[in-house]
Amino acid sequence: MARFGIGRHTYLCSKPKPRPIPLLNTSALPYVAPMTQELHIVGGGMAGSEAAWQAAHMGVNVVIHEMRPNVKTFAHRTGHLAEMVCSNSFRSDDDEQNAVGLLHWEMRAANGLIMATADKHRLPAGGALAVDRDPFAESVTEALTALPNVRVKYGEITELPSDGHWIFATGPLTSAGLGAAIQAETGAERLAFFDAIAPIVYAESINMDVAWMQSRYDKGDTEAEQKAYLNCPMTKDQYEAFIDALLAADKTEFHEGETAGYFDGCLPIEVMAERGRETLRFGPMKPVGLTNSHDPENKPYAVVQLRRDNALGTLLNIVGFQTKMKYGAQAEVLKMIPGLEGASFARLGGIHRNTFINSPTLLDNQMRMHSKPNIRFAGQVTGVEGYVESAAMGLLAGRLAAAEILGQSLETAPLNTAMGALVHHITGGADAKTFQPMNVNFGLFQPVEGLKSGRRGRKDRYKAYTDRAKSDWQGWLVAQS
Ligand SMILES: Cc1cc2nc3c(=O)[nH]c(=O)nc-3n(C[C@H](O)[C@H](O)[C@H](O)COP(=O)(O)OP(=O)(O)OC[C@H]3O[C@@H](n4cnc5c(N)ncnc54)[C@H](O)[C@@H]3O)c2cc1C
Question: Which residues make up the binding site for FAD (predicted)?
């Protein structure tokens, strides 16, 4: 049994029992040469399926290019569109207090196929939206193939065309051939094959009576640069206890077929600790060039550094702390860091097989490539993470591409919606140098003025975010009707 998680949610990922699933009759789908005004969508997963549905409903002819079942991945089992590869959960359905629940709401309001089908095949799961995976994928496939202006063409695409309108939504397991084409277009360093996610903390949950702001050796020309890092000091005893806990913590394994390649430059902290008890003190936890402003006379034995993860400054990542510790263990171990005892995590760390592009440098806010504006990217390959976020980016890309084909002008999603917060993060808000996949969370939202910060004000704050988002999202939809 393996685990895969999104943000604070961990999914138990038992291999679903294989049952024979009829494949589609692909021979009945003749190939028609691409026409400029058709929309070609590469990848019929969560994002590609939703993009196709949206564009088709706006009156555009759509061709979905899906490589399965001809070309397989290690995680998919069928030839269906929108196959859920692991957990069957769409996470929280609470649209007032949870950012992913708000994304559900926005997609439902936009006639989203993925949400409507998930609702149809809902399983009991408390406040979460769990889905009966096989009927779900079958229904999505049927709904799309029933549309007169959607065709599915089964085959792998291995190039980035210069003509026509394209959306690439090939997901975390983008085929190797296409990966090579993307690297040739963007440069090798702008396409990652593994994520290396350091845990992300809500800034407001850090105890600033313990932590302080300072860049190593006060480097930088401006005060903002000289205070770019948040530092958490450790005594020798605290460091030794932390190393013990790291070594003892439960770790996750890679899925079969996922295998190595991740070691280049992103060792998990627990692997560093296994190499020697002092390794971290000479690596990401080195205490040099820092003076604790709360206790200048005492040099810390080790220091954990955090750095802004978004332009708003509401999220901070723990520098160099990518990890394969299981989520429960991770939260426990990280809260041993002085200053983080009461930390709330926007997402916990992880390392997974995950192909994604450096969207902040490669895409505009319409999700088009700067270098090839006839191509959009959508879904997990853009650096969002999860079924819901991927479908959401598909919904947006589908509408934006269709509007462009129809000669309509359509702004990207409003900033204060969940959809807008996410697309803004990947195409501009995130730091390109440290860009790693992101799930939707309230840390991506602009603050609502005049509301109490901290844990006490959280309920009112989240309600204000979701109210504002719903109103802005409805405004965006109405403007298109
Ligand atoms: C092992 C694993 C476990 C996961 N577990 C979870 C989980 O439990 N919960 C969760 O929310 N998310 C999970 N994810 C992430 C999840 O897969 C994505 O969030 C979601 O499926 C992404 O949607 P997508 O449409 O971007 O990609 P996908 O749903 O993967 O769809 C991409 C499609 O593109 C096709 N494709 C790829 N390359 C080509 C090509 N060159 N030409 C034509 N077609 C191509 C693929 O066959 C696939 O059908 C997991 C990912 C992996 C790899």
Answer: 43-48
